[in-house]
């Protein structure tokens, strides 16, 4: 008897001591608590059988977690991407097992190649059913392995807090990327006593960023200081590293002209005197031609994608290359670096700024201006101020610039309108250009804009989409209808799959193979979702219509009929060197 | 021992700049990691010649030995991609002269056949084979060595009805490696150490006693 009593007392003490720390509840509840601990406010998701326990728990968290019910899981993950890109936070997605999870794959691939931090939670069948081809069972972990930075299957609720903490840490640290956690239904239901949630800040096998080595910074500075024609290429790394100010300080001191990849656009304002424009296939004339004239190229947070470099064996062969990147695997991957500066550019740029000489490079900058003038005369003016009756995509962008003054968040889909938007949209602020860069995902625009609006609620968010891309994810109009995201939808309709048509015209003897796409009445479609809109097919009405759209209180759809067979120029044809860029 | 020099093939010309590399991966023992690593090769349409996973000198850390036939630049990029995986601690890659390696092969032959036509003793001596099982109906020989050596015994046994043959993946020790214990301490620290920057090379010092 005595012993029994002792034990009881002991147990009581233990309980009293740990009750502060322990949380008794289901795996689903502890998951949602963890999301709140990580600062999550918004979830994009779609329920289904295998994730029902999590949704059941979510019912009681409505005051803490806002759940946006999308119309398709692909829309959900693109919205989370838009949210992450606009806000700099981690985007969160819920989806069920099987088809719910497989519908995430496109978005995962997009987020992986564009380094977007996401945490996706998928439901999975009960652990005892794994491998039995159960209803809505798919091998989600193996399907998503090549398109995730990390993924993990949870079969026991006790793992949830630790795995979730790891997921957030991995998604946002180092080079960000998408993470997927697959949770079996039994783990969602399992009742346990959980310890207090602890955020993760170290995984022994994971190096988010390499240690900065001063000797490489010194070597880089030495190269830069002797350069006569130095040229900076910057990418999204500057934005992901939240190093916009450090970057500005670097270019202001060194006086080096800087050109951007479409993922890096907006890291410095369009109007910055050293911003010389866009790189790549449809980039600006000067930056492309002068890549093959620069003596030192400083690549910052960019990965020498083939759309940027054109033909590699004729790419900047005369230049010494300095490459700053947080991901060691990027250095020497496509273009061999003479000096590879591994590290977070937020840390490396100030060190480099300290060591570089103040400079102006006036003559060299004048060359960019000369090329720019040629481009203005031959390409830009005819595009922005067309003389013919047909409207151009460029003049629509010019009007947006005039109305918004560069303060809007511009989300694009993929194709001609994307290139035109990236070329001509003006940006004053970082995280304002949201586009599917690496994967080129048609259908990205509308859902990403919804997410961007939640990520940047105080900004005007304009989704610029082609008639083809819009028809890939139009169902997300339903999400706007239900939750009221004030997204301005601008459809640039040329009644063609324009970019493919342009290639067919230029490289396939005008054999227009299956690019002639018809569209529904987009305005009527929007109306059926209770979204206002109008269609414009005359220049006289364009400005007023754009102003109506932007000043409209809620979401608005504006369809602009543009010239059918307009091409995007300049263009570096595939297989050509960047200096062989064509103005027409 | 004389065969080893021959097998290292030091002066053999490289075909297309490709040669045999052994990639050594130190990683956490986690379900799905093998797939993550395999995908890095298959994505680039590179064939894995041999793959072995085993425990390492450190408890709970596993070691992969992957053999591929590729050029230096390709292998270097692959190593960086592998090292990028969350659960991978460290990746080394080495040419054959930088490692000691072995493979194990088993041969099943008809005992009658072999007793009549060739002396078992001769096989054992010449190929360094050992008889693992001797039964009335068959005998199983084991040979450890390089691929060329185990292949040589196949050739020798071919005329005598080789019933079954199997060879293991390569296991390799890096000659100039001080083991992983010190590295692991760096990994367990929050700040990455200097050493981790030079991730793909072990300095090829003169410390190696070459046979």
Automatic annotation (TrEMBL), chain A:
Top EC class for this record: transferase
Pathway: Amino-acid biosynthesis; L-isoleucine biosynthesis; L-isoleucine from 2-oxobutanoate: step 1/4; Amino-acid biosynthesis; L-valine biosynthesis; L-valine from pyruvate: step 1/4
Catalytic activity: 2 pyruvate + H(+) = (2S)-2-acetolactate + CO2
SUPFAM superfamilies, alphabetized: DHS-like NAD/FAD-binding domain, Thiamin diphosphate-binding fold (THDP-binding)
CDD domains in the cross-refs: TPP_AHAS, TPP_PYR_POX_like
Molecular function GO terms recorded: acetolactate synthase activity
Membrane-traversing stretches: none
Domain Thiamine pyrophosphate enzyme central: 217-350
Protein origin, superkingdom: Bacteria
EC number, as in UniProt: 2.2.1.6
Keyword Metal-binding annotated: yes
Repeat recorded as keyword: no
Domain Thiamine pyrophosphate enzyme N-terminal TPP-binding: 27-141
The Thiamine pyrophosphate enzyme TPP-binding domain, residue ranges: 413-560
Stated family: Belongs to the TPP enzyme family.
Protein name, entry field: Acetolactate synthase
Native source organism of the sequence: Pedobacter punctiformis
Gene for this chain: ilvB
Automatic annotation (TrEMBL), chain B:
Protein's UniProt keywords contain Nucleus: no
Pathway involvement of the protein, from the record: Amino-acid biosynthesis; L-isoleucine biosynthesis; L-isoleucine from 2-oxobutanoate: step 1/4; Amino-acid biosynthesis; L-valine biosynthesis; L-valine from pyruvate: step 1/4
Protein name: acetolactate synthase
Pfam families documented for this protein: ACT_AHAS_ss, ALS_ss_C
Domain of life: Bacteria
Catalytic activity from the UniProt record: 2 pyruvate + H(+) = (2S)-2-acetolactate + CO2
UniProt record similarity statement: Belongs to the acetolactate synthase small subunit family.
Species the sequence originates in: Pedobacter punctiformis
EC category name: transferase
Molecular function in Gene Ontology: acetolactate synthase activity
Keywords, in A-Z order: Amino-acid biosynthesis, Branched-chain amino acid biosynthesis, Transferase
NCBIfam families in the cross-refs: acolac_sm (TIGR00119)
UniProt-listed CDD domains: ACT_AHAS
Subunit structure: Dimer of large and small chains.
The enzyme's E.C. designation: 2.2.1.6
Keyword Amino-acid biosynthesis among record annotations: yes
Sequence ranges assigned to domain ACT in this UniProt record: 22-96
């Amino acid at each position: 008897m005595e012993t029994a009593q002792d034990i009881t007392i002991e147990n009581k003490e233990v309980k009293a001591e740990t009750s502060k720390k322990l949380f008794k509840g289901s795996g689903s509840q502890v998951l949602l608590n963890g999301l709140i601990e990580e600062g999550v406010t918004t979830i994009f998701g779609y329920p289904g059988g295998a994730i029902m326990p999590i949704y059941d728990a979510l019912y009681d968290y409505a005051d803490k977690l806002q759940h946006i019910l999308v119309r398709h899981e692909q829309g959900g993950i693109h919205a989370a991407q838009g949210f992450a890109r606009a806000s700099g936070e981690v985007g969160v997605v819920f989806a069920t097992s099987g088809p719910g999870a497989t519908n995430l794959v496109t978005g995962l691939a997009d987020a992986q190649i564009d380094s977007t931090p996401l945490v996706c939670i998928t439901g999975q069948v009960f652990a005892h059913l794994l491998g039995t081809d159960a209803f809505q069972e798919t091998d989600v972990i193996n399907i998503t392995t090549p398109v995730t930075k990390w993924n993990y299957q949870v079969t026991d609720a006790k793992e949830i807090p630790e795995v979730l903490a790891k997921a957030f840490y991995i998604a946002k640290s180092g080079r960000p990327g998408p993470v997927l956690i697959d949770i079996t239904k039994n783990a969602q239901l399992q009742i346990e006593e959980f310890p207090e949630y602890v955020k993760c800040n170290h995984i022994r096998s994971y190096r988010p960023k390499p240690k900065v080595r001063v000797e490489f910074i010194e070597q880089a500075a030495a190269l830069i200081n002797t350069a006569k024609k130095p040229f900076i290429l910057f990418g999204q790394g500057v934005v992901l590293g939240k190093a916009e100010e450090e970057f500005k300080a670097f270019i202001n001191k060194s006086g080096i002209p800087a050109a951007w990849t479409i993922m890096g656009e907006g890291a410095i304002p369009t109007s910055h005197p050293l911003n010389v424009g866009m790189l790549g296939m449809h980039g600006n004339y000067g930056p492309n031609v002068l890549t093959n004239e620069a003596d030192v190229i400083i690549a910052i947070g960019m990965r020498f994608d083939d759309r940027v470099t054109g033909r590699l064996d004729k790419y900047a062969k005369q230049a010494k290359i300095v490459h700053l990147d947080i991901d060691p695997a990027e250095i020497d991957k496509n273009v061999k670096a003479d000096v590879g500066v591994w590290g977070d550019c937020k840390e490396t740029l100030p060190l480099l700024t300290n060591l570089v000489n103040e400079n102006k490079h006036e003559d060299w900058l004048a060359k960019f201006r000369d090329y720019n003038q040629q481009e203005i005369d031959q390409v830009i003016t005819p595009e922005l101020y067309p003389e013919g009756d047909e409207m151009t995509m460029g003049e629509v962008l010019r009007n947006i610039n005039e109305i918004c003054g560069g303060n809007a968040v511009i989300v694009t889909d993929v194709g001609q309108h994307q290139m035109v938007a990236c070329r001509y949209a003006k940006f004053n602020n970082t995280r304002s250009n949201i586009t599917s860069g690496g994967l080129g995902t048609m259908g990205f625009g509308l859902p990403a804009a919804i997410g961007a609006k939640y990520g940047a609620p105080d900004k005007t968010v304009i989704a610029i989409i082609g008639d083809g891309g819009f028809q890939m994810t139009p169902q997300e109009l339903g999400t706007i209808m239900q939750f009221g995201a004030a997204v301005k939808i601008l459809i640039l309709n040329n009644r063609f799959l324009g970019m493919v048509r342009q290639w067919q015209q230029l490289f396939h003897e005008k054999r227009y193979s299956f690019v002639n796409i018809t569209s529904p009445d987009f305005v009527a479609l929007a109306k059926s979702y209770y979204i206002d809109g109008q269609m414009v097919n005359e220049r006289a009405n364009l400005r007023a219509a754009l102003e109506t759209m932007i000043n409209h209180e809620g979401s608005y759809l504006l369809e602009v009929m543009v010239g059918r067979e307009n091409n995007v120029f300049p263009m570096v044809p595939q297989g050509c060197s960047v200096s062989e860029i064509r103005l027409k | 021992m004389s065969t080893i020099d021959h097998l290292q093939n030091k002066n053999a010309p490289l075909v297309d700049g490709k040669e045999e590399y052994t990639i050594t991966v130190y990683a956490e023992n986690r379900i799905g990691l093998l797939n993550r690593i395999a995908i890095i090769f298959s994505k680039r349409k590179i064939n894995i010649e041999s793959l072995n996973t085993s425990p390492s000198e450190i408890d709970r850390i596993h070691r992969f030995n992957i053999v591929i036939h590729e050029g230096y630049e390709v292998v270097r990029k692959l190593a960086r991609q592998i090292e990028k995986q969350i659960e991978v601690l460290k990746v080394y890659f080495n040419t054959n002269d930088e490692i000691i390696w072995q493979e194990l092969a088993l041969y099943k032959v008809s005992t009658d056949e072999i007793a009549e036509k060739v002396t078992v003793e001769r096989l054992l001596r010449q190929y360094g084979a050992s008889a693992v099982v001797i039964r009335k109906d068959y005998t199983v020989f084991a040979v450890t060595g390089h691929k060329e050596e185990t292949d040589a015994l196949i050739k020798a046994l071919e005329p005598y009805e080789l019933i079954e043959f199997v060879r293991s993946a390569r296991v390799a020790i890096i000659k100039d490696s001080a083991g992983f214990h010190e590295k692991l301490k760096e990994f367990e620290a929050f700040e990455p150490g200097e050493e981790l920057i030079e991730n793909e090379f072990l300095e090829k010092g003169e410390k190696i006693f070459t046979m």
